[in-house]
Specification:
Length: 384
């Protein structure tokens, strides 16, 4: 009997001394609890090679999204976490998925979760459960080159199953901290800090219970505050001075984001002074005014879909109309004035003709309508 029992343990990859080990291929999930296949009692020990999509949850997903949004490395993150890559190379098939080792107690997650790329030893992601709930510090690492060297890029504090405390993000390229947010019960609370890849702050946001209240903007070069806006619970700007940055390109977060424009808001619409910048040189392209959400006076440069390049030539606005619109309107007005002038001149000619015919004995018996028709015909012949 003992021999048969030992064989059963080995078939499931269990270790006789210390924690038992079970490969995910031999796992059964019953009522959200983990069992070894064919066993009646829930499993206690270590489960290996668990696909990441089987252990990710909403809170872990929030951290990954925070990293992606604050660094612009969303595609790399997706490749590592969802598809999997081998040492920063081409996307591989399922044999290179992110795999995790998890600790289980009586069928429930309880202890460390450690994830790595299949075939690699370096940990990409690690966090911890306490009696089925997230607890402790989550740490995310990322490869920095084709040799597979990794660095820490995110760290998040968790307790009681949710994000509680600070979440920090670093640039994998520069090692500088680029983002920080404080979470309470899984919701943003307090002030977030967004830096360029050089570590200099260019934007801060103030939250309360997950609702954004205010955004403050800084010059990425000098660190000087250059604007701030108040926002409603949906994040819509109410009033203030907003700043739009060009902060990300195909390689991710820029060392020093570039200012696209600075724009005044009133009653949730751009109204007031607007300054547009050349992203390449940092020089001012134009200073103009907006009114009720639209350009009103000055030169306005529209942008290409990349949000960076400008469309030439700019449109010149005068009291809410473009110069071309004004010129077109003037042409229409001039044509209408010319039409009215010709019509008035025609009426003068026709009236003179009628008076002349009235004095002609050949037309003495004709009605005025007939005389008018005769004169209109005469005018038409003269115009040809």
């Amino acid at each position: 009997m003992k021999t048969k029992f030992l064989a059963l343990l080995l078939s499931f990859g269990l270790v006789a001394c210390g924690d038992e080990v079970l490969d995910y291929r031999n796992v059964e999930i019953v009522n959200k609890q983990i069992y070894a296949q064919g066993e009646n009692s829930s499993f206690t020990g270590k489960v290996t090679n668990v696909p990441f999509d089987k252990v990710i949850n909403e809170e872990v997903g929030k951290v990954l999204n925070i990293y992606a949004r604050s660094t612009g490395d969303g595609k790399l993150l997706e490749a590592l976490v969802i598809v999997g890559v081998n040492a920063m190379g081409n996307s591989q098939q399922k044999n290179s998925l992110l795999l995790c080792d998890i600790k289980v107690n009586n069928g429930i997650l309880d202890g460390d979760v450690s994830c790595h790329l299949n075939g690699k030893e370096d940990t990409i992601l690690k966090y911890k459960y306490s009696n089925g709930k997230l607890d402790g510090t989550l740490t995310l690492y990322m490869p920095t080159n084709k040799n597979g060297d990794i660095v820490k890029v995110a760290e998040a504090e968790m307790s009681n199953g949710t994000l509680n405390g600070k979440t920090k993000v670093w640039s994998a390229r520069t090692g500088k901290q680029v983002f920080e947010i404080t979470m309470k019960d899984g919701l943003a609370n307090g002030t977030t800090i967004q830096n360029g890849a050089n570590g200099k702050t260019f934007q801060q946001e103030t939250y309360e219970s997950g609702k954004i209240l205010k955004t403050t903007y800084f010059n990425p070069s000098t660190g000087k505050e250059i604007g701030s806006v108040n926002q409603d619970v949906q994040g819509k700007i109410i009033n203030g001075t907003s700043v739009t940055y060009y902060a990300f390109n195909n390689a991710g977060l820029l060392d020093e984001p570039k200012i696209i424009d600075i724009k005044e808001y009133q009653n949730s619409r751009p109204s007031g002074k607007v300054i547009q910048y050349d992203v390449e040189t940092g020089k001012i392209l134009s200073e103009l005014t907006f009114k009720d959400g639209s350009p009103y006076n000055g030169l306005y440069y529209r942008r290409e879909p990349d949000g960076r390049s400008i469309k030439n030539p700019p449109e010149e606005y005068i009291n809410g109309e473009t110069k071309s619109q004004i010129e077109a309107r003037k042409r229409i007005e001039e044509a209408e004035a010319q039409r009215k002038k010709l019509e008035e001149e025609s009426q003068i000619v026709i009236q003179a003709c009628i008076e002349r015919l009235k004095n002609d004995e050949n037309y003495a018996s004709y009605d005025i309508d007939v005389l008018e028709s005769e004169c209109q015909q005469e005018l038409n012949e003269m115009s040809q």
